[in-house]
Amino acid sequence: MLEHQKDSKQYQQEKQGGGEEEEGKNESKFFHLPSHFLPRRYDLFFSPRPVQGLFIGSTVVTIEVASPLPQPTRHITLHALNLSIDSEDVKIKTGIHNSSGDIEGSGDSVSSTVEEEEEEEEEEEEDDEGVLHCVGIRSSEENETITIEFDSELPNVKGTTFTLHFVHFGGIIQPSSTATGLFYSYTQDNNFLSTHLEPTDARRLYPCFDEPSFRAVFQLTVEFDSRYSIIAGTLPVHEEHLELDEVAYAATFFDYASPESTPDRFWGFSNSNSLNSSTPGPSINSRMLKGEGGMGSIRMGSEMNGMSYPHGSHSLYLFPRSQTCEPYSTATTTAAAAAGGGGGGECLDEEPRVCSLRRVMFDVTPCLSTYHIGFHTGKFHILEKSASRWPLLCRVVFPLDVHVSQGWYALDLLTKAVDFFDDYYDHPLPLSKLDLVSVPSAGMLGASLWGLIPLHQSFLLVGESTPVERRQRIARAVGHGVSLQWLGGWAAAGRWEAAWLADGVARHVEFAFVNALFPGWMAWDEFLAQLLDDALALDTQAEKTHPVNYVSPNPRRIRDTFDSISCGKGAAIIRMLEGLLGRNHMQQAIQMLLQRCGGSIFDEKIFLNCLCSVHHSPGQDLDEVATAVMQYAERSGHPLLYIEQRNGVCRVTQYETPDLREGVIHTYAQLQPQRTEKIDAMDLMAPRRLRSFKWNIDNLLKRTNYTIPVSIMEVKHGSTSFAHTYIIRNSQESITCTPDQLIFFNYRGTSVLRCDYDTATWRRIFEIAPFLSSEDRMIITITLFRFRNIHIGQDENSNNNNNNNNNNDDDINSINNSSEKTGDNIDRCLLLLEWLLFISKTTFMNSSQWKYITHNLEQVSYMVRDYHCWSVFSHFVCTLYAPLLHRGAVSFAATENAVSFESQTNLSRETVLHILQLLAICRSPLIQDEAQQLVAWALAALGVVTTSSRAGGFNVDNDTDAAGVSIAMQSLTERGDSNTWCTLASLLLTLLGHPTHTVPLPEVENMNMNSDLDMEIDAEVLLRVSQLDKTQETRWINMIAPAVFALDRSSTLSLQLIILQYFTTLNAPIAKAMLRNKRLMIRLFEPNGLIGWGKRLSNIRSLLIVYGATFCSDAVLLGLMKACVVGDAPMEGIVSPTSEINTSSTTTPTAISQKQFTADNRESVVGCSRSVVNAIAKMEVNCLWMEYCCDHYYNFLSTKLPSSGLNSMGLFPFSSATEGSIDESIGVSI
């Protein structure tokens, strides 16, 4: 078993032993609250004070004795984090027996005013019967709990109900970047607040039983500035307006940060009445909540939370008002303050002002977990509409400063999603309304509360220019949030280890919803390319893989556990169940789960029982299928099926999928015959390796044994093909078929696995590809790209002695002794190119497939560019996209109609730009004229004299236009347009504030440019540049810089280094452009080459190394990078960066560095981050892969492509190209 192939129990045990050194102290076994006390109801009251960065709260928890203890106790334990609670503000009221179970009426309201509560306390002092007083509070930092001790024993009779009162407590409003607990959600106005409590942050907001199995009903009351709205998961049932003078309002706050309050009062773990925290903060004394001591006796410190306050109690401004920043900064702007309706931070006037407050009590929720409640404050547009199938009130809530029209798209999606899932789940919900709430905070993408779905503003609002990819993502997010109202809210996982089920179902059905609403988008192709592929790629990496149902024992790391593996692979498991069992079977099982667990909790066993309880025809192995699929969640990694089909025998063997970053490259290098002793796989000093070897998978991969249900389709000419489920129970099995029959495994990409075939079978699959589904073609494309480091060598047909659970020796020998050689003589590294050539001649490709191909083909192009096959490979890339160019689908002027978009017939604008980026790398002459016109059009906006005839003015704030212009600039400089380069370099220097007359002109005089062009900038350009605001200036810099850094010439090197000194960090487009400039890269990594750059050079080097892991296979540059990392001096033979470089060199890895990054010593490199060390190792793999493939690529493509086409395309073996990544280059980085 490989190290990363572990089940959840093994993984859990290892993680409990400690992880990283800084995390190890909190990695202990799970702490679960004792279950003899169960919460039945929470009455919550909150009064946020955003100016001070704090909130005041009060809670009454109704608790039932579920199981009596052997001996009565005086202690009760709850979760609490970063809360200030004083022992005298905690008490228990007993004598309540709720025999009827009417939980909704059993709680004490906390919505009374502070004055009323004080009167009640005075009355209680006279009659203390049935009241238990707190005598101490003990906290646990590790478990994030408090244990409260009372002066008498707690009730211990089963069914007895009592109430736990937290009369007053205080907490901190978190910054927007954290998006945990109660946090600021809009930097333009601090009175915009939101809550995010999942998974373990309800304890930041109120003391509670913060585990998903402790469910209760909730009633929420919030008090806030009356000028702002308050939104919660249920509708308001009572609202009152309070008019308080500022002195009275301040009396409930004043002692919160007094200098007399020691930090231990709030943060210290030694005091009995203090709570735990992991970060520093203000000291808070909760006795101040009652206003004791009077206003005149309180003095504030000069600083709290880094925010300055005037000295003296009467100079503290407590009046609710709009703010333009969080309380961790003192910056304000008049415009923003005026927009918010309040002042900008001035002190109190002599006359106290009237404070108008809104106190809203919301309706009682059904039985929920603690993280399902929350609220939002702000000034909002509220659009509403009722769904048609189920007339539920649906609303979209977003800030007033956004145009109202941008919310209609989300509202339409919301009503359709409610109807879709009401039909899918067929289970009524006790919902009174459902809100989509826009949260501008960058720290929050999405969550799902009861009746409330908060989404990041950019993933909710839609304007006319919103691209189709963003619209697709919004539709998925809405579908995901609505689905969680049923499975995840109304019925929820009882343990975090089972939470993947609710999220997996939601992520699966969100694609089903989008596919039903927009069938032309072909959503399942996106599922395969985005969720499944990414999850399976991470699942092969030993440092990242884990079972789907694994959850970190550290409560602060539970959220991090829900990564691409838990979410993506979890959704793929649900899709696998539906694909193998059938949609109706899966739907009935989920409906049965809701019937059993609605208003309660479930786990994997209950879910599996529902899957097996659905009626199905006798003789079907559906129970075995369901059980086998559910076991995927308990193991890390996934199987690889290797299928060989010859002479009517199909042999299927299971292997452990290797780390796809390295594949079989290590083993290939070790099998070379040049040395008698065993050489290290990554030894780049080894002699030149053989360019071919025999493929024997048993020598390269390790066997495994899963029970694998997989959908297969038997294809035979002249007959109809149907898919059916086949269960693989052994490590190796054989299926008998006719010689002309082809068995295609994993039909529609249903199962969570990878499939590989022998070369002849792959080529037969290519032939039937037009008759396969779109999902099948996507899976073929994904597999061939992902197996790039596995597909090397030729198939070996010699006899193999296998003794691994095989009872079909005759069949195996028949395969091994086959004389059928059709297609077997091609090297496996050419399968990808053969597939791409095949699909370029077809019409069945869609936008999602082109997007995936372009993204991955760009990475291959970066690595090929330093080898002698670059000229023919770049021609191949241009040929691949030529049909799209000729029919106008790919053009700088191409537009996108997001409303009528069809993936089969249209390309998204984002995909078009990425294709243009790749064509710019390959110097396609077909885009040059259009690129020149586009650049001239853009430069005219800065006053540069051009001949542009394009209508309209260029707007740098338009992401699409800016990205297109940046690509066009790079396309021109890649082909050596020196005039354009000098113009762009001059503009970039001006934007950076560098005087152009100081530029060393001799460095650029050798360039072939017009004699009248120099580096001077005329007055009109200077004037327009000076009129740009900071954001526009940054966007222009990011737009121009990649084209300036990409030109690889010795005459431009000095000027490029001058420009680079203005950069402290690099975004992705700039970093990748620099990777294309070999001279610049070598100069940057040359030992002692750049004196005086200091930390800036170290940061730039680290970023370039990390990007190099994906885009670099240059052995010379790799040697210099390794020398920087391990401290080696480069060995003899490295070309000086100041001399001329033969950019068409066929250099292969030679003597570079005496220290090799082997698996044994990578972690021992001191002073480097893990990402840098791993990037070096990945570049070594890139070099070895390209060393093997370059000859095969050259010979294959030279044969397939007409040689006359090379000259006609104007392609020559240069060493520079162009940058681009779908996620990182489309849109200028700010």
Automatic annotation (TrEMBL):
What is the top-level taxon of the source organism?
Eukaryota
Q: Name one GO cellular component term.
A: membrane
Q: Write one Gene Ontology MF term.
A: peptide binding
- Specify whether Protease is a keyword of the entry: yes
List this protein's GO terms for biological process.
peptide catabolic process; proteolysis
Asked if the Swiss-Prot or TrEMBL record annotates the protein with the keyword Mitochondrion, the reply is: no
Q: In what residue span(s) does the Peptidase M1 membrane alanine aminopeptidase domain sit? A: 409-614
Region feature (Disordered):
1-27, 95-129, 796-816
The UniProt regions of compositional bias labelled Acidic residues, in chain numbering, are 114-129
Report the Pfam families cross-referenced here.
Answer: Peptidase_M1 (PF01433), Peptidase_M1_N (PF17900)
Please list the residue ranges annotated as the Aminopeptidase N-like N-terminal domain: 39-243
| This protein's UniProt keywords | Aminopeptidase, Hydrolase, Protease
Q: Fetch the PANTHER family from UniProt.
A: AMINOPEPTIDASE, PROTEASE M1 ZINC METALLOPROTEASE
> Under which name does UniProt file this protein?
Puromycin-sensitive aminopeptidase-like protein
Give the organism the record lists: Trypanosoma theileri
